[in-house]
Write a sequence for this structure.
């Protein structure tokens, strides 16, 4: 199903991405590899192709009119929710190495459960610690994988 | 005699145990709505990191086969497909459950999955070595044409050709990050050493298929109450079996053929099989009302894809579907490159995978028939705890492979990308397969040009190259033709 309103903005975003990629590609050094097709040959092919297809999508969204998309439009509330969870993920990635697996994961587990609407105190008492420790022992002792 | 020498180790207790564990885990993952077989394999690849290749790969194959089968459990019991490949099973499975025949519907799904899986496993063991011998003669031009065909078909099957092609090209462009395969020049690394060899494949897959699904679940997170249905009598009657044999066999062959075509998958196979079963039936009006052949058609087809999708992966290095694309990550972390050379260099792995596929299919049948009542309880697991546990697995899995923090950010980045792609109708499968086929297409195109002094005619000569090029053009034109036909029909109506 074509989501016209969203498609218009997505194609603009894709064209901007193509412009950015073209700029970065132009900065790459050309190296002699015994053929005209150097390290930038394939990226240029892809950037050109993507730009053409994005332009076609833009035209399609304009021709089809700018009616509101259906089904899976992302509302502001959802975007906020996803954004907040993304921040939690980034904080987890940052703290994973600095605080170590156990501390950072227990904290993220509790925050995540709260974020996802869990309010039963009994669940917070044991589940995060048990799951985090089981996973820790599974990876470190059983599979020999190092965790910080 | 050689083959026997490679088969015997697969029957070692630890291998059987790991296959059983993988299959059981796959069934649990598949049964849970929102957790797909793709996600299961992506998440559990890191678990196989420290295992011997035959153990690790067969565990992943067990998860794959179990996961695709497990999808039918929630399709039949709660009208929510556990995996996209079981979406068509809802049509007849749920009405059967409403009629009080949930157990028999699950029993039929298990038998059909077993038959489909077994037929495809036989085809895998027979056809893959032949295809691999043929592929030994492939040069850069043939490989480039094959990669191009894979990219074209995945774009054309993604529903919207334009968006599918954009997703594919984006995937190829993202695969260019890191060292150039020919000259070694750094491309788009932005000075970050963690990206010097490109985006790590497994973290990218985990992000694309597991973390993105977490975002989707967060969006949908509702306090869904699962209506528990009573299960009684799991063996379908003789009449049911007689009625469903045709649909089951037809589905098995449809699934096997579709699995071999690079880029297609079990979802496509089950819908085609369902439609064909209805078309061939003397009582098509019964389909959709709770008709056993409907369940048999979809489940035999989607499980047949599991084994047959391994054929192009193992013989040509081209994934047959999105799960085998993820499985390729499992082969790669074991230091194995799928393709014809694997048949020459590691016949033990190839034969081990063939045998493992058979064993996993048998385990799936045993667990399916014995554990139906137990698996229904899985549907009661609190979704929020499950979601956070998946997040933890995403992080450990992405970090454990290279112990590289950059991989965590890669996983998060691909997770966000996957979520938005899913929301706006861009195929994640196209992006994933393009990440694999991109380097193959690029290096073979450039090697071909080097050997032919930049003469493009090389890519339009030779029977295999021309065949793939023609198939590429046809697969791109087909959706356009279908669109045109639909519009003409609409106008004349």
């Amino acid at each position: 199903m074509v989501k016209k309103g969203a498609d218009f903005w997505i194609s603009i975003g894709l064209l901007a991405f193509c412009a950015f990629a073209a700029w970065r590609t132009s900065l790459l050094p050309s190296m002699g590899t015994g053929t005209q097709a150097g390290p930038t040959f394939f990226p240029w092919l892809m950037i050109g192709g993507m730009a053409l297809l994005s332009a076609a999508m833009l035209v399609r969204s304009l021709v089809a009119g700018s009616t509101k998309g259906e089904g899976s439009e992302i509302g502001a509330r959802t975007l906020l929710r996803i954004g907040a969870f993304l921040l939690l993920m980034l904080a987890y990635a940052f703290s994973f190495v600095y605080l170590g697996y156990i501390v950072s994961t227990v904290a993220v587990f509790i925050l995540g459960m709260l974020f996802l609407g869990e309010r039963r105190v009994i669940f917070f008492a044991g589940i995060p610690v048990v799951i985090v420790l089981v996973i820790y022992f599974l990876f470190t002792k059983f599979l020999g994988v190092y965790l910080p | 005699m050689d083959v026997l020498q490679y088969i015997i180790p697969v029957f070692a207790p630890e291998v059987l145990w790991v296959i059983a564990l993988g299959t059981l885990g796959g069934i649990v993952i598949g049964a849970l709505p929102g957790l797909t077989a793709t996600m299961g394999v992506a998440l559990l690849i890191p678990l196989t990191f420290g295992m011997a290749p035959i153990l690790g790969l067969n565990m992943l194959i067990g998860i794959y086969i179990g996961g695709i089968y497990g999808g039918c459990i929630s399709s039949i019991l709660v009208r929510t497909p556990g995996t996209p490949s079981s979406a068509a099973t809802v049509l007849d499975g749920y009405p059967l459950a409403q009629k009080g025949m949930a157990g028999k519907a699950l029993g039929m799904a298990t038998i059909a999955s077993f038959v489909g899986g077994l037929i495809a496993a036989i085809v895998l063991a027979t056809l893959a070595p032949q295809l691999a011998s043929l592929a030994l003669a492939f040069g850069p031009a043939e490989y480039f044409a094959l990669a191009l065909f894979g990219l074209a078909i995945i774009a054309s099957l993604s529903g919207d050709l334009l968006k599918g092609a954009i997703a594919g090209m984006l995937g190829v462009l993202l695969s260019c990050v890191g060292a150039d395969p020919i000259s070694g020049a750094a491309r788009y690394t932005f000075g970050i050493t963690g990206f010097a060899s490109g985006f790590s494949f497994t973290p990218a897959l985990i992000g694309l298929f597991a973390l993105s699904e977490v975002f989707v679940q967060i969006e949908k997170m509702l306090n869904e109450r699962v209506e528990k249905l009573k299960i009684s009598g799991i063996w379908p009657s003789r009449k049911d079996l007689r009625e469903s044999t045709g649909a089951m066999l037809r589905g098995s062959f449809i699934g096997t053929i579709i699995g071999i075509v690079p880029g297609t998958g079990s979802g496509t196979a089950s819908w085609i099989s369902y439609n064909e079963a209805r078309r061939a039936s003397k009582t098509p009006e019964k389909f959709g009302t709770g008709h056993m052949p409907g369940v048999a058609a979809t489940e035999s087809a989607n499980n047949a894809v599991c084994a047959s999708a391994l054929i192009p992966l193992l013989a040509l290095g081209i994934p047959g579907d999105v799960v085998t694309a993820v499985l390729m990550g499992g082969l790669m972390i074991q230091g194995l490159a799928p393709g014809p050379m694997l048949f020459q260099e590691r016949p033990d792995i190839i034969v081990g995978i063939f045998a493992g596929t058979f064993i996993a299919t048998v385990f799936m049948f045993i667990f399916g028939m014995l554990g139906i009542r137990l698996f229904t309880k899985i549907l009661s697991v609190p979704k929020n705890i499950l979601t956070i546990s998946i997040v933890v697995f995403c992080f450990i899995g992405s970090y454990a492979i290279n112990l590289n923090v950059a991989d965590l950010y890669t996983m998060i980045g691909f997770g966000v990308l996957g979520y938005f792609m899913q929301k706006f109708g861009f195929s994640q499968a196209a992006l994933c397969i393009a990440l694999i086929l991109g380097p193959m297409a690029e290096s073979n195109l450039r090697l071909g040009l080097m050997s032919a002094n930049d003469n493009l005619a090389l890519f339009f000569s030779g029977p295999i190259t021309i065949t793939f090029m023609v198939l590429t053009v046809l697969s791109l034109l087909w959706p356009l033709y279908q669109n045109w036909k639909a519009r003409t029909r609409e106008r004349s109506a």
Observations:
- The mean pLDDT of chain B is 85.
- The CA atoms of residues 79 and 426 of chain B lie 25 Å apart.
- The radius of gyration of chain B is 22 Å.
- The first strand of chain B starts at residue 178 and ends at 179.
